Please model this.
Amino acid sequence: MMRTVQLVIADAVYAAALRDALSHSGPWHVEFVDRPNLERPGVLVLDEPAFERLALPLARPERVVLIIRQDPDLLAQAWDAGIVSVVSRVDTLPTVLLAIMAAALRAAQAHETVTSDISPSASIIPAQITPQSPISRPRRCRTP
Model:
């Protein structure tokens, strides 16, 4: 399954390097955009100027990867916006790729219902766990 990544990064050289790294790491459809389309599914990778143009609060901040300088005020703004994937320009490309993959997983989990054969359902009655005889008895602690 092809996953979409919108790159909103002003530095064209860095954006191209990130696109190349993504194309070698999996089935990613990478789009270079000036403004992110928040209605489209997928991951949004934003730099500082793109983040400053966004209207807050974000509807789905779990899918955003923010690339900013390590400024306490910017980090606080990202935290307040609900963004958990924040990386620096000095981080390696593999680190940025991990952040993008994590954002894609969080976005998928947020909008999928996971069903399992071991998940409880209304038709299953839970078993009683209370034992018939005590397994352990209270013991006194001896002090010297």
Summary: The chain has one domain: 3-110. Residues 3-110 form a domain with the Rossmann fold fold (CATH 3.40.50.2300). Confidence is low (pLDDT under 50) at residues 113-121.
